[in-house]
Automatic annotation (TrEMBL):
Top-level taxonomy: Bacteria, Pseudomonadati, Pseudomonadota, Betaproteobacteria, Burkholderiales
Xref: InterPro entries: P-loop_NTPase, T4SS_component
Organism: Bordetella pseudohinzii
Full protein name: Type IV secretory pathway, VirD4 components
């Protein structure tokens, strides 16, 4: 019996691997039919059932019905990109539920960006373990804002002591410089997003400060394009000093800056900075003290932000060439975990860090939207990096602690960019406490999947889930009839029943849920669910130690530097893949690397072939390694007895190395591929 003939339906979607049609997933089309030999036409709505396409495994169904319990809960790609809102109190299993989603994304080899406002070290440890199991530990990246209360001066002292002993003390984080490669308008948005919202006179000073920093960033972006500098937080901080800004102004007067970069700084000094006299720009000793005061008021808007990034988190933002690029993470399907210290930092500083991370993602999405309209569909729509078979997973855990302005827009537009957004909170009130409280309703409205775990909040959070679940019609017994006997009284149910409209989700039901249990509300369905749970022994290794992938600081290559060094393309580079292939196709020459006579490799290959052909499934990987090691050891000892010296192999020269017969052309597949 095929799956097409099954009578049952899955609670949500049918998984893709079983094939067949999914009767819960369909589209309705209007078709026009001709009747009475074409004299009349009539239209009707046809339901087109789509193939099974479930790809995100959420867990299984909880129900007392033994014939239905355990049915799997799946969502399709389209369902995932309608985003999810996960609510659950402390101890409800929210983190384990989200880790189940992460494991799904790793099976797709898709990008995972996990921002955690709780900043628990168990999270990156578990995600690294899952990445290791999926062979993706090389894609693991960690942005760790936790310092553990360590004094940076004490760390500097220890680093100096250990470097003498050839021991390097590294910070437990990858580096991040969102200002390094972004255009100046994106740099402006990054800095502005971290400013505190102001009103009244403060808003006026804030607008003036934005105009000033806009002029600075334009000049820095121009100099970066000319190869004169690399933009970092420290470079921006140094450029804000008044003497440095005047130098930029003088360069513009000398024609060293283009108008796009010069006009904003010119407007700032000549019209936006009271007391500044352009004729005295060359002589700082004659500048009015009011000039310094006015400039100090404006730069003071960014002082706290730049100090936070440079002084407290300099180990993250000090590198010119960062290890983390959000756009690279999204487009090349890497794994990024961000720990935001909401406990050890003030709410304002935690929110500032969250704003920076959220803004980096938002601006990366904006870059991937594209701008080109003219061209074919393959050039305009299908060529974008956001197109793919599987969505990119962006989880925002404990979002209430770092909810930033602009995140609601991300939820609204992420679907087009092939991203699945997940917002996880303990209560809805937390979203309404920060600066972005006006966006909380919009964010929740843009999530079609509501997943509620155990809940204690009887106010806003429960009201949201109750309204999302809707109401249903239930049969309610009208009452009981009492029958009095000689000794005892009995009660019998009345034959009548009433139909009442009641809420499908009650607070009592949510409060009694165990860890990992919850309700999945999707469209008009309220499905009791048990989350996909991964035991600790499968995600937290007791043998392997996680390693942060640290990269070397390498400057961007420049053609001018190659020309100055007299570098020339090599004509005899036999290892260059394209040259080797061209030579083979043109002259039928044998590849440049020779065959090897290697008795050790031959012995190991022979034993490995026997092990692979064996039907004994009880042989473990450790036992297999021991057998291969012993085979190599015996072959090496045999080679030593035969008088072979290290490296125990020798090249085999062909009889005619210049030409290769046409019959030998099929042996090209036997050569290993070149790097």
């Amino acid at each position: 019996m095929s799956f097409d003939g099954q009578k049952f339906r899955m609670p949500l979607r049918m998984p893709k691997d079983i094939g067949g049609l999914d009767h819960t997933d369909f589209v309705e089309e209007r078709i026009v039919e001709r009747a009475f030999w074409g004299l009349m036409r009539r239209s009707k709505i046809m339901r087109k059932v789509l193939p099974a396409a479930g790809m995100l495994y959420l867990g299984y169904l909880r129900t007392p019905d033994l014939s239905e319990v355990g049915r799997e809960l799946w969502l399709t790609n389209s369902d995932c990109r309608t985003h999810a809102f996960v609510a659950g109190t402390t101890g409800s299993g929210k983190t384990e539920t989200l880790l189940g989603m992460v494991d799904n994304a790793m099976t797709w080899c898709s990008a995972v960006l996990y921002g955690d406002g709780k900043a628990s070290l168990a999270l990156p440890f578990s995600i690294w373990g899952l990445a290791r199991r999926h062979g993706q530990e090389d894609n693991f990246q960690l942005l760790n804002f936790l310092t553990g209360g360590i004094d940076p001066f004490e760390v500097e002292r220890l680093q100096k002591e250990l470097i003498v002993k050839n021991i390097v003390m590294l910070w437990q984080s990858n580096s991040f410089n969102p200002f390094g490669s972004s255009p100046f308008d994106f740099l402006l948005q990054l800095l502005v997003s971290m400013l505190v919202k102001a009103e009244g006179n403060g808003a006026e000073w804030r607008d003036k400060a934005i105009n000033m920093i806009d002029a600075v960033l334009r000049i820095l972006a121009f100099k970066r394009a000319q190869g004169e500098l690399e933009i970092s937080v420290q470079v921006i901080r140094d450029a804000l000093a008044l003497p440095n800004l005047v130098k930029f102004y003088l360069e513009g007067q000398q024609g060293l800056l283009p108008e796009l970069a010069y006009l904003p700084i010119k407007a700032y000094f000549e019209t936006g900075l009271p007391g500044f006299v352009p004729a005295l720009a060359h002589d700082p000793t004659q500048w009015n003290e009011e000039v310094y005061n006015q400039h100090g008021y404006l730069t003071g808007q960014f002082t706290r932000v730049l100090s936070l990034l440079t002084d407290q988190y300099g180990y993250i933002f000090q590198d010119k060439y960062p290890e983390i690029d959000v756009n690279d993470t999204l487009m090349n399907n890497r794994i990024l975990v961000v720990l935001i210290p909401s406990l050890s930092k003030s709410p304002e500083e935690a929110a500032a860090v969250g704003k920076l991370y959220a803004s980096a993602i938002r601006l990366s999405m904006g870059m991937n939207l594209g701008y080109q309209l003219e061209g074919k569909k393959a050039e305009v729509l299908e060529k974008r990096g956001s197109v793919g078979r599987y969505p990119k997973l962006l989880i925002n855990d404990e979002l209430a602690y770092w909810f930033a302005v602009g995140m609601a827009v991300m939820f609204a537009q992420a679907r087009e960019l092939n991203c699945m957004m997940v917002a996880a909170v303990q209560d809805v009130q937390g979203l309404k406490r920060g600066e972005a409280k006006d966006e909380s309703a919009s964010l929740i409205a843009n999530t079609k999947v509501k997943w509620c775990l155990a809940l204690e909040d009887a106010d806003d959070t429960f009201e949201l889930i109750r309204k999302s679940g809707g109401q249903g019609y239930y049969s309610v017994l009208a009452g009981y009839n009492e029958s009095s006997g000689m000794l005892l009284s009995s009660y019998e149910a009345q034959g009548a029943a009433n139909i009442q409209e009641k809420d499908r989700v009650t607070l009592k039901e949510l409060k009694k849920l165990q860890q990992g249990e919850g309700l999945v509300i999707f469209k008009d369905s309220v499905v009791p669910a048990a989350s996909y749970y991964i035991p600790n022994e499968f995600k937290q290794s007791e043998v392997l130690a996680p390693r942060i992938n640290r990269l070397l600081q390498i400057e961007r290559p420049k053609f001018t530097r190659l020309a100055a060094a007299g570098a020339k393309p090599s004509a005899n580079n036999a290892r260059h893949a394209s040259e080797t292939v061209a030579r083979l196709l043109a002259s039928d020459r044998r590849p440049s690397y020779p065959d090897l006579d290697d008795p050790i490799l031959a012995a190991v290959s022979q034993v490995a072939g026997r092990l692979s052909a064996s039907t004994d499934l009880a042989v473990t990987a450790i036992e297999r390694g021991i057998v291969l090691y012993e085979a190599a050891l015996q072959a090496m000892r045999e080679a030593q007895r035969n008088g072979t010296s290290p490296f125990f192999h020798r090249p085999v020269e062909p009889e005619s190395p210049e030409l290769m017969a046409a019959v030998d052309y099929n042996k090209l597949d036997e050569y290993p591929e070149e790097d």
